[in-house]
Amino acid sequence: MSDGTPADLFFDAAIGLLHRVRDEEAEAIAAAGTLLADTVAAGGRLFAFGAGHSSLAAQDVVYRAGGLALMNLLAVPGVVGVDVTPATLGSALERVDGLASAVLDTSPLRAGDALVIVSLSGRNALPVEMALTARAHGVRVIGVTSVAYAAETTSRHSSGTFLKDHCDIVLDSKIAVGDAELALDTIPAPFAPASTVVTAALMQAVVATAAATLADRGIEPPLLRSGNVDGGHEWNSRVMAEYGDRIFYRH
Predict the structure, then answer these.
(1) Structure confidence by residue, pLDDT tens digits, 108-135
(2) Best CA proximity match to 106, nearest among 76, 86, 63, 67
(3) Which of 32, 124, 136, 239 could anchor a disulfide with 206, C-beta 3.0 to 4.6 Å?
């Protein structure tokens, strides 16, 4: 590591990655935002899924002030965070064949909906099977992943494939294998992951694109407002009443 504090160097690394995804993924971001807008306009529903720390970016666009009210979290018990004990259980569940099919069979997802799957490595059975099965049921799938993993690691799914192989649109987060941006001679392992920063930014860029695309078509995007500003709750009540049949986190 060269000049600068570790904090400075982490910010530099994260900002560099953000510049890369802004410039190199612009076309995919536009396509993903358009897909979400198309889904909303056609009466479809929106879902996001992520396991482990990848779930943070999925949760960031659900029931979010300034976000689309129609974005629902596709939750898989035990894998959406570190609130399970032991925390390693979530990692183990990601590798279980058949779990994604069971989740989808009991979820509200149906043909014509859109599902955003966030998985940094894209190598585990759960995100791969979820994408494969969802598309087979007529769901459009957007994958947010680091494509580098497909070149530098092996798949843990029985097909030998990765998340990126089963998506209508792929957003590459550009995160290096291992997800650690810094190294010091005095520390035996690389540290300071940036995947959450970059993936959350990608998700918000897609949602922003979807909202603007709907507006360009003369459709008011179903956005939520902060409940901490005057009139926010009234605004959100109106949106939720209008789109209640496509919002599942309030039932």
Answers:
(1) 999 999 999 999 999 999 999 999 999 9
(2) 76
(3) 32
End-to-end CA distance of the chain: 50
Q: Give the C-alpha separation, 195 to 54, whole Å.
A: 8
Phi first, then psi: give them for residue 146, nearest 5 degrees.
-100, 110
3-state secondary structure of 170: strand
Q: How far apart are CA 238 and CA 215, in angstroms?
A: 18
- Whole-model pTM? 0.95
Instruction: Count the alpha carbons within 13 Å of 212 in the hemisphere toward its beta carbon.
Output: 11
Show the tokens assigned to 210: 């979807």
Please state, in angstroms and rounded to a whole number, the distance separating the CA atoms of residues 43 and 120.
Answer: 30
Distance CA 17, CA 174 (A): 7
